[in-house]
């Protein structure tokens, strides 16, 4: 077999080394941020912290959780995540299912290409801002959720997954008296869990990390955490209120590191549970035409 040949073994070894180096390069900054967040401020300022905490303490995390602005932004991010994922997956499924049935219809492919067209040409920032303003969505969580409710790329993944499902399953359901909505809920969705989990992961990561839209549509008291963190990285953190005796333990850098790690933690926790669906969902949703 080809995987037993010497050239393949050499390629495999180099591939592992290169990808391993890339993985280490990606994870080391996060480890450094974590180490800084658990270290005393004087050691961080002196440059003695690398990838392990020096003089371990939790003062930065204690002050972070006492910051009402940060807790509020975290709650806003959770709300955006819940609304964005629930609405996004619902709209994606309800769009992909009927489109998967249009191949046999005259002009059905053109309807699919209508959605693909939006991937190639976008209205732009100013027209989108005007639409949000005219719909009276300014300073509302809906300004962050509704404009991106349907991601065409995710819809195409789900569309191709639905096309790959044997038609005999649908025909048996229809013969038994089920309608299309029942067939979607009872037949298509249960066998589409890998693709659905993949899309949920994509949508969740997008909404948790997005920061620019809130910056232009919302006032600061309604910012999600990603927008707040982006502003803190660029400007001094106004939430630092340390006493003279705590100044050695907490600095602006340790406090920012704690907030950055807390902002990253939810994705780090959720991702491993969806990882097993990720590759399967991508492959099954991409190779079927």
TrEMBL record:
The keyword Transmembrane applies. It is found in: Cell membrane. Gene3D superfamilies: MetI-like. Residues 70-274 form the ABC transmembrane type-1 domain. Keywords: Cell membrane, Membrane, Transmembrane, Transmembrane helix, Transport. The chain crosses the membrane at residues 12-35, 78-99, 111-132, 144-166, 187-208, 260-279. It comes from the Bacteria. Pfam families: BPD_transp_1. It is a multi-pass membrane protein. The keyword Cell wall biogenesis/degradation does not apply. PANTHER family: ABC TRANSPORTER PERMEASE PROTEIN MG189-RELATED-RELATED (PTHR43744), POLYGALACTURONAN_RHAMNOGALACTURONAN TRANSPORT SYSTEM PERMEASE PROTEIN YTCP (PTHR43744:SF9). Belongs to the binding-protein-dependent transport system permease family. This is Carbohydrate ABC transporter permease.
